[in-house]
Design brief:
Layout: H1 2-13, E1 23-31, E2 36-40, H2 53-63, E3 69-78, H3 91-100, E4 106-110, E5 115-119, H4 120-123
Parallel strand pairs: 3-4
Antiparallel strand pairs: 1-2, 1-3, 4-5
Bound molecules: tetrahydrodeoxyuridine (THU).
Amino acid sequence: MHKQLIETAVKARQMAYAPYSHYLVGAALLTKDGNVYTGCNVENASYSPTNCAERTAFFKAVSEGERHFSAIAIVGGKEGEELSKHCTPCGVCRQVMTEFCDNDFEVILGTPEEYKVYKLPEVMPLSFSNTEL
Ligand code: THU
């Protein structure tokens, strides 16, 4: 399941629109019902409207009525280079994961050949969530 999700993220990465950073990211988000939503980063000449691959996947899924997620695979690297280093999610994407996911949510980082699986609290310790409100 993890490897397959990474492979789906690799395909999603092909759609990345990153003419400014030339750093291409793909994500594949698995719902608890077994549906998969993909995302890529979408950059902008004004820079700040840029959306990360992870948030693209989450917002596609949530806007289709999904609310329960079990894992996300993330792959990223420089345009024209082999995928090697792990692409770790930015703070804003970790906060979005915190909004919709529980402590069992898995964050899968790496490549189809080599990846590591983290639980959400490992990548987002001491998080602020809706349980505080
Ligand atoms: N980016 C993502 O899409 N996800 C990450 O986890 C890290 C960064 C994107 C944002 C921007 O388009 C490019 O990578 C360089 O920061």
